[in-house]
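Example record for the data management plan.
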Amino acid sequence: MTEELVQWLGEQLDEDERTARRAGDSFRQIGETGVIVAAEGDRAEECASANWAGVAEHIVRHDPARVLREIDAKRQILALHIPFRVDGDPWPGCSTCSWRNDMEDLQVQYPCATLRLLALPYADRPGYREEWRP
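Corresponding structural encoding:
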């Protein structure tokens, strides 16, 4: 279960990255009928014809550049939370969270709550396991 969650979560981030990169440049602003996409030179196109201002605003706030920054941050968090074993302990702990293992009542197993929380937004995707739920 330890490596599977990390591998699966990495695949979800890869998929999000591919999608964001396919979307192209950042969505810049909300136009009259949709979202205006920055394009070549001074030319701009309207896309995602959104009848509701809230939908268009959501698209602009979650543009590909932001998604890519979020993916990078999540990958850095993943890198901080790698498994390690304490002498004689059959279960791995988290390299970041398990410092708390010195306290007998707070055993932090791997995958830690941080990794489980990172995976939670993807719970609707194929391959998510209920045992990963925090």
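Summary line stored alongside the record: The radius of gyration is 20 Å.
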